[in-house]
Structures are given as C-alpha cells and as structure tokens.
Write a structure and sequence with these properties.
Shape: globular
Largest sheet: 4 strands, mixed
Strand order of the largest sheet: 1-2-4-3
Bound molecules: protoporphyrin IX containing FE, 2-acetamido-2-deoxy-beta-D-glucopyranose
Radius of gyration: 23 Å
Structural class: mainly alpha
Strand content: under 5%
CATH architecture: Orthogonal Bundle
Number of helices: 19
Number of strands: 4
Helix content: 40-55%
Length: 477
Amino acid sequence: MLSTHILAVGIPCIIALVAALRLTRRRVYPLPLPPGPRPLPFLGNALQLDSERPWLTYTAWGKTYGKIIHSRVLGIDFITINSETIARELLDKRSAIYSDRPVIRTNELSGLYFNTLLLPYGEALRRQRKIFHQVFRAEVSILYHDICSRYANELVINLLNATSDLQEETQAYTASLIMAVTYGRDTRGNGDSLLARANELLDIGRHVISPEKAAIFTAFPFLEKLPVWCFSGAFALMERSRELAQQLLNEPFNEVKAQMANGTASHSVVADFLSQADGNADEETMKEIALMAYMGGIDTTTSALRTFLLAMLLYPDVQARARAEINQVVGHDKMPCLDDRPSLPYLSAILREVLRWYPPAPLGSEWYMRHQMMIFTTGAVIVGNQWAMSRDEDTYPDASRFDPSRHLTVDGQLTDPFANLFVFGHGRRVCPGRWFAENTLWTAAAAVLAVLHVDHAKDSNGDRIEVKPEYTTGRAM
Ligand code: HEM
Ligand SMILES: *[C@@H]1O[C@H](CO)[C@@H](O)[C@H](O)[C@H]1NC(C)=O
Ligand SMILES: *[C@@H]1O[C@H](CO)[C@@H](O)[C@H](O)[C@H]1NC(C)=O
C-alpha cells in the first residue's frame, strides 16, 4: 500500500513528485465520493495507514465511515469495499466496468509484462484467461489427483521428521507440486536451480515492483526519464528481473518440448497442452500461464496451508472431529484421496473456514492490493478489503472464531462450493487457479489429519510452547 515507505525514496524524488503534482489535473467525479477520513494536503491519508497491515486501517475506518470508504494517497483516490455483498454487487454484476487495471510501467521495465494479475482488460488478458481455464478448470485439475497424493504423502513424512521446519516444508510442498503439475518436473531436493530462480523473481517482484513505486510511475510517467540515481538500485534489480523472467518462461517449457520429442515427458499441463495443440497453438501464452501458476499460486496456497495447521493446533475439537470423519469414511488402513472428497463435507468446511478466517490475500496483501486495483472509469482505485469481509459480523457471527460448521447446513452438507468463496475475488478477474488450489489444500489437509496429530511443541522442560499467529504483507504475487 502507498504508505510511509514513500518517504524513503529520497528527497530528490519527493521534490520531483511535488512538481509532478502541480501538473496533475483535479479529477471530476460524476457521483459524490463515499465518506472517509479527511486527507492532508499532498500526502492525503498516507500517514494514517498501517504500512505493514493496511487492511487493518481500512477495517478500522469502516467502523466510522461504513462499508464503502474513500481515502486519498498522493493524489490517487482509493475506494475500499469492506463488504462481501457490496463487492459481489459491484464486481460480479457490473464486472465489465471494474475489470480493468492501470497500465503499470514497472511491469514492462521488469520483464513481467505477462503478469496476469496486472494485465489491463483486453486481448492479452482474454487469451491468457481462455487457456488458464482450459488447463486449470475443475475437471482438468482433478486429473492430477495422483501427483497431489504422492506429494502430500511426502509432506507428511517430512513433517514427521523431528528436524523439519514447518515453514519450509509447507512451502516445499506447494512449490514442488505446482512445478510437477505444470511441467511434470521434479524439483525436490536442492539440485534444481529453477525453484531458486523462480523465488528470486518473486522476491524482486515484492520489492522493486512494489505498489508504491508502481503507483508513482503510473501517476507520474515522466519520472522514468528522471536521473537514474533516483531509483538506481531499483533499475539494476529490474534488469535482473527481465533476465530471470526470460529464462523462466523459456527453459522449463522448452525442456518439456524436448522430452515430448523423445517420448520421455510426464503427464503435465504443458505436455497436455502441446499434445492437444494443432499447428498454430499459442505457445507464448502457454509459457506465460505456466510461470504465472507458480507466481500466483505459491504464496497464497502456502499461506492457507500454514493457517490450516495453525487452526488444527488452536482448535483440537475441530481436528478430532475431522479425523473421526476421515476414519469413518475412509478407514484406518488407507490414505484419503480426492475421490473421497464428496463424502467428507466437514473437511471441506474446514478448508473454507481456513480461507475465510485468514484470507491469504487480505487486500489482498501487497501484490493483490495492486491486482485488485480497478481503476474506475473516472480514475479511482477500488480495493476489495477481504480482511473486513472476513470479519463482517452480519455475514459471519463471532467472526474471529474458527468454526467450520458455519459452512454446513443443519444436515451437514456444504452451503456453497469452495471456489465461490470471496477470497478468490469477484467477477471477470476471479482467480483461475481456485480449483487447483482447492485440490492442493485438500490433499495435504487430508493426509496430515489421517496420519498426524497437530499439537503444541514442548520446550526443554516439557512445557508447551504457545503460538502467536502473526501475518504480514508481501507474501503474495
Ligand atoms: C488459496 C489459494 C489462492 C487464493 C486465496 C487466490 C486468490 C486470488 C485472488 C483474490 C485473485 C484476484 C481476483 C480479483 O482480482 O478479483 C487471484 C487472481 C489470480 N490467481 Fe489466485 N489465488 C489462489 C491460488 C492460485 C493458484 C494455485 C493459481 C494458479 C494455478 C492462481 C492464479 C491466479 C491468477 C493467474 C490470477 C489473475 C487473474 C486475473 O487477473 O484475471 N491463484 N487469486
Ligand atoms: C530428517 O531431516 C534431516 C535434515 O533435513 C535429514 O538429513 C534426514 O535425512 C531426514 N530424515 C528422514 C527420515 O527423512
Ligand atoms: C530426452 O530429452 C530430454 C530433454 O532434452 C533429455 O534430458 C533426456 O536425456 C532425453 N532422454 C532420452 C532417453 O533420450
């Protein structure tokens, strides 16, 4: 979020910004803006925002100003939506108006021109979304159930290892599973530099192409021509980012092609796409989607998996009930698999509640913040504040409590499919990876519950170590 970080850019840039602001015309809105905190001149509400967790500030403002709030940061108007109903109303029903994104120059400068999240509504986005749907829709995602099970079993074995690090193991599971499904590539172990480079690219994305810099470039495009010393560190990183993006788009994709030529390719999204393609398949778009699946899927799914483990730790009754359901339906001598999902509604309700309880992209987080920026035709930015939606007492009474049964009818059936949950966004830009995310999370959760008991760690005196949940930004692309 635009925040006090902005002050760190350096005095020369601030002077440039002041000059730039003089040049920007006041926008004229056809409708009155919603209520909100009073902006200061120039900085607007920047200093009032919690820079680490801006969604908390927006949620607090909601208590004073209502479910739609207006705020202003450095001359840019933000409209924050704190209600699921209003978000659905606006973003689902009038989707065409709100599906655009600003053209953000930092995307091009950093070689991430293909980043779906940030594509404006147009031909490139339509091409990507069409193939995304073709290769990641529900009926296709389920075909990878055996790969999911294999990796989930390995996750359980790794978690059993007393020396294992939970943060690392959860990340390793989602990362290696996405690589296995998209490219049929085994990235486990430390031998594959592809993962290291993909993570480096994600990291650069989080820092260099941060929303504040993107907003500056977008609002004041002439800054690109400013003396390089202003953003010199950033430009060096952008060059590295361009190089990495090219390697990651081409290397793994071309390897699958080569494997297909000698008949050694495993079942994967890319191999399937190529084998079904006629002569003029859109290979460039497929390359982009394969990399985007990693960029878009990794932090969100990992965050959800960690929240699941936390919930099981803090709510042992829920854990026991889920395990009882698995034991009753699947038995003790077999691992649950995705075929069992329809018979395990309580487990599905847990996963819905995991995402509702701590949405992986609360604004969602840094990157999502930007991909949820939807420029009004008049030029304001709309932010869907998922954190406020998750804590809306009208929809979710006793909202901070983890309670899967809120997603079940009285006779124990799911009220609504997983993929409809508000955490996946709304309208035409809704997350195209939501079924794959569901499969990834379900398989891991089922395997963990079938084999492990999630419990507090003990210190050297045998006393249990209390856990304090902490969530921050910057964990999602
Ligand atoms: C629990 C896991 C996930 C959550 C909570 C999540 C959430 C979201 C949200 C909120 C959006 C934005 C929707 C909007 O702007 O209205 C989004 C977009 C997107 N997600 Fe996910 N996502 C998850 C997993 C995945 C996975 C596994 C993939 C890839 C396989 C993926 C790929 C994408 C892409 C490409 C977009 C951009 C769509 C567009 O801008 O048109 N996501 N996701
Ligand atoms: C447990 O983890 C350690 C350190 O990562 C590793 O050396 C060891 O092989 C693992 N043991 C098993 C049984 O996987
Ligand atoms: C098939 O091609 C891949 C990719 O070039 C190569 O790594 C692999 O060794 C080849 N396998 C055989 C059996 O030729």
